[in-house]
Every structure is written in C-alpha cells, then in structure tokens.
Amino acid sequence: MHDRKYLIVTAGLLLILITPLCSVAQRSASVVDSLIKRANLLYPQNPAAGKAAAKEAASLAALNHLLPRQIKAIKLLAFFSYDSEQWGASESFAEQAVLLARGAGIDSLTGDALVTLGIIRAAQQKLDLAIESYKEAEGHYNRAHLVLRLALLYLDIGVAEKKAGRYGLANTFYFKAADIYLKNKDMGSLAEVYNDIGNCFTVAEDRKKGIQYFQQSLVLRERLGDSTGIAQSCNNIGYVLKLDSMADNALAYLQRAMRIRLKLKDSSSLALTLQNIGSALIIKNNPEKAQPFLNRSLKIAAVYQMPEYLARGNLDYADLYLHEHRTDSALARADVAERIALTLGLPDLSLGVFEIKQKALVEKGRFQEVYTYTQKINHIRDSLFTVAKNRITNELEVGFQTRERQRAIAALIRENQLKQRSIIILGMGGTLLLILLFVLAMSYRSKNKANKRINTLLQELHHRVKNNLQILSGLFSMQISNLDDETAKNALRENEARLTSMNLIHHKLYSGRESNDIEMSEYLETLLRHIQGSFGKGNAANIRVALDVEPISLAADKAVAIGLIVNELVTNSFKYAFNGTQGIISLSVKRDGEKKAVLYLTDSGPGWKDLGSKQQSLGLKIIRLMALQLDAQLESHHSGPTWYRLRFAI
C-alpha cells in the first residue's frame, strides 16, 4: 500500500519538476509578469522608473485582455502612489482596480481591490469611507468562502473603528476575527486579536475586561514561546494595573517586559515600557527613581522619531512635576503633549492631558480654566464611551463566549450519540462476525494469489522508476556540462538535487527492506551530504552544515515531501545566505508530542535582500506545495538570520 502511494506521489512530483522545465520559456516570455517584477525591483531605488514599468504592464495587460494581471499592475500603481503620499493618484488607481474587478465578476479580485482602496482611505483618515470599502469587500469574501481573508478584513475594520474612537464597534469586528482564528486553531493570530480587544476595553475604561483579554493573550503567547508577544502582553497588563494604582503588581509585569525587550534589543517598544515603569514609580511617590526611566524613554522616542511616545513621555513628566507641586513645569510638559495629541488625532491621549491640566490649574487656583478643561474632559468621554457602545461590546462578548459553550455542549452530545451507535454496531457485528470469517477464509487463497502478482508488478514498476530517475539525472548532468550560462546551470543543478531527494527514498524502498518507512536521520544526513557536495567548491566550502535529527520514521510519501522541502531550504541557504562569507546551516527535526514533529532550519546569514522576487521562485512554490500536502504549519523569517519552522504530523 505504501509502495503504491509512494509511486503515485513520485510520478506526480516528476510531473511537477518536468512541466516547469517545458514551460519556463513560455512563462519567462510573459512580458506583463516581467514588467510587474521589474517595477517592484526598480521602485525602491528609482520610483519614477518603477511607476513607468507598472504603467506599461497595465497597458499591455489591457491590450491582451489579461484582466487579473491588469488589476495587479494597477494595484501596484496604487501602492506606489500611496508610498509617495500622492493620495489623489493612489485612490484613483485603487478605484480603477475595483471597477475592473467588479466588471470581471470575480469575488476574490474584487474583495482584494476593495481592501486596497480601504487601506489607502484609512491612511488619509477617511475612516468612514475606508470602512465602507472594507464592508463591501466582506460580501465578496463571504461569497468566495475566503475565511482567512475575512479574518484579516475584520482586523482592518477594527483598526479603522478604533482610530475613529468607536471602541465598541471595533470590538464587534475583533470578536469576529477571534471566532475565525479559534475555529482554525491559529493561536498566534488569536493572541494578537485578544490583545486588540484588551486595548479597546482598556481605552473604553472597562479595565477589568481589558486585563482579562491581555491575560488570555499572555497565556497563548507563553504556550507558543513568542517572546515579543509575551513582552507586549506583560507591558499591557502592567499598564492597566498602573491605571488602577496597583503599582507593585504593575512593576512586576513591566519589569518582565523590560527584561525581554532588552534581550531582544527592541528599542522602539522599550520606550513605552520605560514610560510605564516611570509612571508606576510616580504612583508609588518615588519620583527620583522614575526620572531616569522617563529620560531614557524620551531619548529613544526622539532617536526613532516616535511622536506619540514623545507625547506620552511628556505627559508622564507633567504627572511627575504635579506630584512635586511644580505646576508651571507640569503645564509646560502638558502643552507639548497636547500639541502632539491634537496633531496625531489621539483622543485618549488628549483625555490624559486634560486631566493633568485640570489638576494643575486647580492647584494654581485658576478655576475658570478648570471649568473649561472639565467640559473638554466630559466631551471626550461622552463622544467615545457611550452606554450604548459599551452595551454592544458586552453583548458581543457574551455571544462569543456563548458560542464556545454551545460548541462544547454540541461536542458532548455528538460523543454520546457515537457511543450509542457503537453499542448497536457491536451487537450487529457479533451476528455478522461468523459470516465474515467464513467469507474471509474463502477469499484468503484468491487474495494470496493476487498479492503475489501485485508484488511482481510492483517490483517491475520500481525497476522502471529507478531507471527513469537515473536517465533524468544523467540528462541533467549532460546538460550542465554542456552549458556556459551559470544561471542555467544552477537551475539544472537544483532540479537534479530534487531528483536526488526522491531517488534516495526509492533506493531505500527498492533495497529489499521489509519496512516501507524511511528513517529520517539517515536519509537527511545522506541528502545534506549530497547537497553540500554539489555546492562544496569555492566559497561554499566555508559553509558548515549541522544536523540534529531524532530517531523518527516516516511513510515514503511524507519522507519525499520532507526531503524536497529540506533540499529547497538548504539550497537557498547555500545560494543566497552568505555571499562568499563563512557560515553555518543548522537543521533539526524533533518530536513535538506523540503525533507531531517540528523541522527547524536556520542559517547565520544576514537575510534575504530581494525577498519579493525570491518568494515567487519555483523552489518556494514547491516548499508551499509540499507543506500543503503534509497539512503542515509553515513559518519563516527572512530579516536577519533566516529560519523556517515546519510542524507536521508523523
């Protein structure tokens, strides 16, 4: 059975490898695709040339009725204009893409174009128009059953509603996104959404629920080992505890966040944590200890040009001066924070500024101005945190939790029904058992004969596959030796390596072993030796390969997929990671519980400079295809040392 499945997979993979070779000339001759790729490459260094290439691609696609490519080129023009803050042109291109997609009647294209339009409108603070575009996209994604795109769309709507100060409505869509991620068991994204929900509750002054969702986010991130996320959750929990004047508890969380961010060298996020530590120390009436934290946070905010953090740092200083009864200094700092808050349109920050000013003016006896700021405070609170909005959020939260309980109840009901059915089936099975035993005994002899014939045919098929693999490998070697173009040689070497990864599996199956499972430690060691040998000349000889694989055996079809993935990843590291320098490529395969394993590959190179073009390569397409075949979770990181993590079933 494994043999037949392996042969089917092998034949399919051979087709995948050979078909691109036959169609490379045709695909590379696609002028529109080349122009779009060229536009992406040119734009960072020469924006005008990048835009010109994108316009040429759009015109040529329109001339040849290549509608999806035309829409892609126009969306690219929209983002180029967005990047250069040419808002009118950006919005015009996005609207053109929407019209073309609507005319084509393709829901996925129309939804994507509308999301592009919404992003551009949101960047201009046209929040209601952006939300209108997003909600129209929702209908198209629903019709196309694009569930994960819907989740991202709900996050976009939530962000827009939050920017508009409509925190109840923001959580409406955050809960929808949370529902989707929970169904899909995407715990990383669910943790992010819980963090957003906690933010909305906190700003809406429902701190109890805010801290509840921050803590749920923290639990998920600790399970995932997400250091950056853990630091964010600890910072947020500490911030809420600080607001509730629980300074000691707040400092415990904030200091944990600070330690993690110092270890990660995350200076931009560290500024906010330092501000929170400073304000917590002010609450503890310890301004001397608070001042160094506030000073350091303001320096970081100035270096990284973070105006919101500058405003919050000045607001914390105003609070510190107020505790020291230096009201003039407090008002001066509050004025700086107020100007930035008004410029950035941050109502929650403005609220904090007005409250500080109100206290300072009371201390100075300027009661007419106190009255003015009291009215401003009430106006912000009335506009942002109405009872109706909080009620909507509460109802949605209850609805979300109710759905979880209903799912649990439904699961128990199904379990009981299955148990009852099992009892009935067992009773009937006892009656049928004697009949089945008789039938099996009668068919045993005929099946034995058929199995012998099948084994003979499989041996012959193995022999033919082996010969075909050797012929293809020989053809690749001959072509490599006859070519002068190094790019073409590398392409053929890559495909020869892919054949080798399958040939090793086939050799192990054909060697007469009783088991059809492949021992991964031995297989991957042989495969890496072959890849290192093929790149082992010149600078590549300075690259060391480290292998750490636990004893794990996989069925042949899974081993083929893992082999192809490892081949592509290691080949990419040899080709792109080191640029002639020394380095190390590390590959590990570890068990993750009884039924799962995690493959982790990393190199010590500086990362990929041209990420956009490499993500469209045949190698990465094969990686994604094999991950899909394995039903595996694939994660990657390309900024700094490159790493890939693949979690798959054993």
From TrEMBL:
List, alphabetically, the SUPFAM superfamilies matched.
ATPase domain of HSP90 chaperone/DNA topoisomerase II/histidine kinase, TPR-like
Q: Where are the TPR repeats?
A: 191-224
Q: From the Swiss-Prot or TrEMBL record, what is one GO molecular function term?
A: protein histidine kinase activity
Q: What is its EC number?
A: 2.7.13.3
In what residue span(s) does the Signal transduction histidine kinase subgroup 2 dimerisation and phosphoacceptor domain sit? 460-533
Extract the InterPro entries matched here: HATPase_C_sf (IPR036890), Sig_transdc_His_kin_sub2_dim/P (IPR011495), TPR-like_helical_dom_sf (IPR011990), TPR_rpt (IPR019734)
Q: What catalytic activity is recorded?
A: ATP + protein L-histidine = ADP + protein N-phospho-L-histidine
Q: For this UniProt record, give its keywords in alphabetical order, as a comma-separated list.
A: ATP-binding, Kinase, Membrane, Nucleotide-binding, Phosphoprotein, TPR repeat, Transferase, Transmembrane, Transmembrane helix
Q: What class of enzyme is it?
A: transferase
Highest taxon, organism lineage = Bacteria
A Pfam family of the record is: TPR_12
Q: Where are the transmembrane segments?
A: 423-444
Name assigned to this protein: histidine kinase
